[in-house]
Design a protein that fits this description.
By secondary structure, the chain is α+β, with helices and mostly antiparallel strands. The protein folds into two domains: 36 residues; 147 residues, TATA-Binding Protein (2-Layer Sandwich), CATH 3.30.310. Helix content is 47%, strand content 28%. It contains six helices and six strands; from the N terminus they run αααβαββαβββα. Strands 1, 2, 3, 4, 5 and 6 form a six-stranded antiparallel β-sheet that branches. The longest helix is centred in the N-terminal third of the chain and has 21 residues. The chain is elongated.
Length: 187
């Protein structure tokens, strides 16, 4: 009888272990996903890249520097020889709706005697990276602008989000194009 109980417990333990292991993700699958291109990579690249009718990368990056500064960015890295420019700006990330929702959730949790720590965004740093490339056999230069934000919460957690809003890229490129046109008129 004892042997049967032990065998039954062993089988139950084995079944539970198998069920738990089934839910585990293979480490190789995770490694394959890290750094993988998003499914919409071509669409993102199309939004982030503009061509300008100038062969002078240095002039384009100089104008881009001025546009970024006009938009409140501080230029942190500038390497015109290799066509790279990076900047950032700090902004408040608090939203009344997000805070109100977290407070309401805390009250509801407390009503059910459940501890809940409200978390909301407090500040953010918006970063931009520009890379330029003169197109071969052409009088055009291609410029790619990538935006992201680093968000900090009231609990000290940090997350990084890519910013893929078409209007943000459009505004930057239109302002840059207008600046390049005005520079051409002044010359």
């Amino acid at each position: 009888m004892r042997k049967g109980i032990r065998l039954g417990i062993s089988l139950v333990g084995l079944c539970v272990s198998a069920a738990l292991l089934e839910g585990c993700v293979n480490a190789n699958e995770i490694a394959m996903r890290v750094g993988a291109m998003p499914g919409n990579a071509a669409e993102l690249r199309s939004m982030q890249i503009e061509r300008f009718d100038t062969a002078d990368e240095r002039q384009l990056l100089t104008e881009a520097t001025q546009v970024l500064q006009d938009l409140g960015f501080t230029v942190e890295e500038s390497a015109p020889a290799v066509g790279v420019l990076a900047g950032s700006k700090a902004r408040d990330a608090e939203e009344a709706g997000q805070i109100a929702a977290q407070v309401a959730l805390t009250i509801v949790a407390a009503a059910f005697l459940v501890a809940y720590i409200p978390t909301w965004d407090t500040d953010q740093i918006i970063r931009v990276t520009l890379s330029s490339q003169r197109l071969p056999n052409s009088s055009q230069t291609q410029l790619r602008a990538s935006f992201e934000r680093v968000v900090r919460t009231n609990q000290g957690q940090v997350r990084v989000e890519q910013l893929h809003q078409p209007e943000m890229h459009r505004e930057f490129f239109n302002t840059l194009r207008n600046g390049m046109a005005a520079r051409g008129e002044r010359a």
